[in-house]
Amino acid sequence: MSLITFSNTRNQRLSPAFNGVFESVLNDSLISDRSVSKVPAVNISEDKSHYSIDLAAPGLNKEDFKIQLDKNILTVSVARTPEDKTEGRRYTKREFSYHSFSRAFVLPESADNSAIEAEYTQGVLSIRVAKKEQAKPIARQIQIK
C-alpha cells in the first residue's frame, strides 16, 4: 500500500544541518511547515489478513470524516470551517485550529475493497482493509513420501 504524497521542496536546497536550524527558528512563525501543512500523521501496517491505516486526528468527531473509495484509491478527508468564538477574548497566541485536510492511499491489488472497516477512538481514525483470500499466506505441513 502506498501513500500519495506531495513533497515540499522548499528546504531541500539546504543541507540537513541548516534545515534543522531554520525549522526551529520558523517553528512559531506564520510561514512554518506546521502552519502550512495541516495533514495528520499516519501509520500504515499489515498482518496476515488485513492492512491497517491509523490516522492521528485528535479533536474531531467521527461525523467529521469522509472516507471514499474510487477504484483502488482510498481517500480520507475532513471539511471543517473554523469556528470563531472569541466572545470578548483577545488572544496573545492562538494555536488551536482545525482545518480541512485530505489524505489518499493507493490500495494494493491484494486488498479486498468490499471489506473495509473504520473506527474513530481517542483521536485516532483506524481503517482496516481486509486482504483477498488468495493474498493470505497459506501454511500447511508437507508430507514426505
Automatic annotation (TrEMBL):
Pfam family, one: HSP20
SHSP domain boundaries: 33-145
Name recorded for this polypeptide: HSP20 family protein
CDD domains with a match to the protein in the record: ACD_sHsps-like
Gene3D superfamilies tied to this protein: 2.60.40.790
Protein family according to the UniProt entry: Belongs to the small heat shock protein (HSP20) family.
Organism the protein comes from: Arcticibacter pallidicorallinus
Domain of life: Bacteria
